[in-house]
Amino acid sequence: PSGRIRNTAFASKVMSADDAVKYIQPDDTVAISGFASAGTPKVMIPALAEKIRGARATGSNFTINLLTGASVSTETERLLTEVDGIALRMPYQSESTARKRINDGRMDYVDIHLSHVAQQVWVGYYGQVDVAVVEVSGITESGELIPAASIGNNKTWLDVAKKVILEVNSWIPEAVEGMHDIYYGTALPPDRKPIPLTRVQDRIGQPTFRIDPAKVVAVVETNCRDSASPVTPPDAISEAIAGHVLEFFDYEVRNGRLPADTLLPLQAGIGNVANAVLGGLDRGPYKGLTCYSEVIQDSMLRLIKDGTVAHASSTALALSESGIEELTANVDFYRNHITLRPQEISNHPEVVRRLGVIAMNGMLEADIYGNVNSTHVMGTKIMNGIGGSGDFARNGYVSLFMSPSTAKGGAISSIVPMTPHVDHTEHDCQVIVTEQGLADLRGMSPRRRAREIIEKCAHPEFRPMLNDYFTRADAMPSAGQTPHILGEAFSFHQRFMDTGSMR
Ligand code: 0RQ
């Protein structure tokens, strides 16, 4: 065994992935590490996909239920999906092969708030977890596990699984030790206690996972790069959205609702818009900002390096190749500015509310009243999943949703009369931003929200159609508090389905 396994009880369990895979059986519920591109097991999944392929070749049906932190590496999603190896997937995916299987009705997918996963598994909504496969960066002399580049639900998986297979990845710099904060104070009601985290940089747990060595059936050694999260440079639309958001921060500071230099802890979703917003922060007057989010993208490393951000808390790193290089070359520096936590803490409603997080998430579409659809294209086909957006949006100090005003080359308006699927209700969404402008909905009744959203956020091509819909709905005797023409509320979507355009 390599020097990464400093405990003899674990060293005696070292074996190859091909041997370890015997511990995974058909119909098992398998919980794996991995959150965004970081920390997915590297060799057990290919071995499992091969085992499933072999079983299928002999005519037997071999599927597992797969529980993860969030999305896992693209290769992992593909390998298991292509052999039809997954019966049920929970809680998040963002990969085209898996997405297609789900939308074809060939894979069950349960889409839940990321902060809920641990508790729901603890109380048994997903039955017994048979096997956990968890990547770590080392095992200490006393038999505790040093985490890798993401935490996700690993603490829960290690606690609840009947059997545990560890992948010890020596590619991860040893100096990550100490970047993690694993909180062991969570309990189920009625014994739940307040989570003692009052500042982003607080450490409330320990740097390692505890594990009952008797459950560990195999230890597999690897030396594999984490997969990378590609980032493309922000385009004009993302830059415009970012510009509106940064102006909003200035406005809030001028109105005394946000501290001038440091604002409040920021959460930014994944994707180019979020990256553009974060990327724009170092052009502003800010110093010593904090972030309380679920992933750390490349733009964050730059902000930490130049002092714009003092501390970032998340559950995973989601870096590009060059981001991975930067972090690995300077782990000792970043370790003092980054804390990785279990996702039930990084996304915890209690902590998000206490810290006053500024929540900024992407959306597919919003309706004229501010209900937001983040997950279902045309109301039926899943895109990715709700992820952590709901954890932050409902509980944040102020909650922004951002999107280009159109999609698919202008054929789709992302402002519609009524969203055919709702992830975030009008009550969870205070600000909507597109490249057209920013609608500040705080303190507004539904009618005023509709006028504000149409005027500030809708694309000029769609504005007259939306105004026409709202004006006619508002004139109906049945208009009520939130006017709608029910037979027409989804007419934009229907027109797209029929003609390929909402126009
Ligand atoms: O599809 O690439 O096939 O053209 O949706 O759209 O504009 O690239 O936006 O990457 O920011 O993703 C909501 C999906 C936005 C994301 C969503 C099509 C569009 C394109 C992507 P193509 P963009 P983004 C946790 C944060 C939920 C989870 C979450 C998401 C593709 O933000 O998954 O928030 N959110 N996690 O063409 C049909 C529309 C569309 C549309 C866009 N109205 N109808 N298709 N698309 N709008 C919190 C953290 O802390 C990380």
Structure, briefly:
With 503 residues, the chain is α/β, with parallel strands linked by helices. It contains 18 helices and 25 strands. Helices cover 30% and strands 19% of the residues.
Q: What this model shows, in words?
A:
This protein has 503 residues and is an alpha/beta fold. It has 18 helices and 25 strands. Helix 9 runs parallel beside helix 10 (298-305) and helix 16 packs antiparallel against helix 17 (463-475). The radius of gyration is 23 Å and the shape is globular. Ligand 0RQ binds at residues 267, 269-271, 273, 293-295, 361-365, 374, 377, 383-384, 386-389, 404, 407-408, 412, 414.
> Into which percent range does the helicity of residues fall?
25-40%
Unreliable runs: none
Number of DSSP strands?
A: 25
* Secondary-structure-derived class: alpha/beta
How large is the count of helical segments? 18
What are the key terms here?
503 residues; alpha/beta; eight-stranded mixed sheet; five-stranded mixed sheet; 18 helices; 30% helix; globular
